[in-house]
Each structure stands twice: as C-alpha cells, then as structure tokens.
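User: I'll paste a sequence; please echo it back and then give the predicted structure.

Assistant: Echoing your sequence first, then the prediction.
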Amino acid sequence: EHPITDGQGNNITELTIRRPKVKDMRKMRGDNDLEQSISLIAIVTGLVPEDLDELDIVDVKRASEILEKMQKGKSA
C-alpha cells in the first residue's frame, strides 16, 4: 500500500512473496516474533533488511498475514 525506494533508488510498489521452504524457516533470525517475521519476509521477497526497514508497518503486517496463511496451507 505504501511504496518505498530501495537502496539502489528503485521504486518498489509491490512485493512478490514466494512460498517459504523448510530451509527458509531454518534461516530465520531474530529474538522475537517481529524480528523473525521480518527475517522471513526478507528471505522470501529477496529484499535486504535495510529495504525492509523502510516498509510501512501496515505492509509488514499484510506480508506477515500472507506468510501465515501459506504456512497453514492456504492460498494467499
């Protein structure tokens, strides 16, 4: 909903989120749910953490909800 500009000056207006695999879950980092969610979003979108830091919280929440549905076996 809220576009960002990445570190290379590209305007990002939408995220492509691929279904996570077990190896992605193993790569997740973070000491709490929010950090782990952001880590997984970075992994499955290909964005670097610095770009994710610029995302609006509404967009992070929406991406987290999509990933949660995927983990439950539902379509996003």
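Strands lie at 4-5, 11-12. The chain has four helices and two strands.
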